[in-house]
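User: We ran a pulldown and think these components assemble together. Before we commit to crystallization trials, I'd like a predicted model of the whole complex to look at. Sequences follow.
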Amino acid sequence: MFDRRREGEDRREELEQEKPRFQICFDGPQRVLLSGRWDAAQAEFAEAFLDTVESSAVVDFSELAYIASDGLGLIFAAHKRLMDAGEALKLVNMNPHIREVFKLAGFDTIFEIE
Amino acid sequence: MNDSCQLPRRIAAVTEMHGLLKGYYEKHSIDDHTAFCLDMAAEEIFTNMVRHNESAEEFISMTVDVSDDRFRLQWIDRGVEPFDPSEAPQVDVDRPINERKPGGLGLYLTQSVVDRVTYSWNDGDMRVDVIKKLGVRDV
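Assistant: Here's a predicted model for the assembly, 253 residues in total across the polymer chains.
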């Protein structure tokens, strides 16, 4: 059991030290590399980065283990903004779990996915 | 087995929640796909509670209950208004990009990746139960 407040605080400190890191960075001029776990806590950082993408780019998911609807929404928003300017995002190297989520969301017909 | 914890009402706590759940996945040898689906459902439900019930109590209760054939999660959010998921906007994932807006997928994705999601409200307490069958690949 970990329902006592003190135990919870201790566990939180442990998790803070071991939590998987999410990263989003440029891996070349037109390539964005995602890694780690993209949960809702990463939204502000991810959105600020995606706002800097101003032309067509490949988004490499090869090192991304997890994404949820917040991340999907941000990728979609960036793609739609770029599409309005005649540009686009191309998504590559998704793991099978992430690819299924994109399909569930209907994004497999909106994005070019490899 | 059945364990409970109190999660602080802030979006950043979703990472902590995933870390706690990871311990159960490892303990019960939950496969990667099932763990991914449970993480998604847990994230959507928890973050919705944080975002839509800002004036509620400081902590949100989460209970984990694992048996041989199913993984069950329950959240209790106290001091909140009722939420009826049937009134949430419907998602049409077949619409073209120019007719879609970012967001609005959370409830739909949650219901898609687990076997059952049950919402109930009584006297200010909102309970959300999620059940994912184990050993069954349905997504």
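The longest strand of chain B covers residues 70-78. That may be worth checking against your pulldown data before setting up trials.

User: Thanks, that helps.
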